[in-house]
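Study this protein:
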Amino acid sequence: MSAPDAVGLPLTGWRVLVPRPAAGVSPAAIALAAAGAEAVVVPLVETVPPEDLGPLDDVLLALGAGWYRWLVVTSQAAVPVLEARAAHAGRTLAGIVADAHVQVAAVGPGTARALRDAGVVPTLVPRGESTARALVAAWPALPRTTRT
């Protein structure tokens, strides 16, 4: 937004630092610009896959084989890594999840959006804050079993 367009907006003349991961559009920067501020986005976090991909590959193989009932994704940055490792195995993340009938939990709406973009529909996304605490609080109760 140019300076003349910003006249009369509440943050006109403000320059605001927005630290964030490198990938993606910053909703905060968009909102600040709409209010007249100059948002300066500075990438401070870089997400890289682990150096040893063997354990991740093993877990994805076990996931696809039905060893797990749930996949919990706590960061949208994890989704492209999971997709890449699934592709390395000749699969898609969506295919692994669907074939194994795995339910998927996302820590928040950004992670849920990244999963949906990968073709994975999350079963559980907590409302409110995007934290592990909120995810655990929203977790469905396990069915009770009776002992005989």
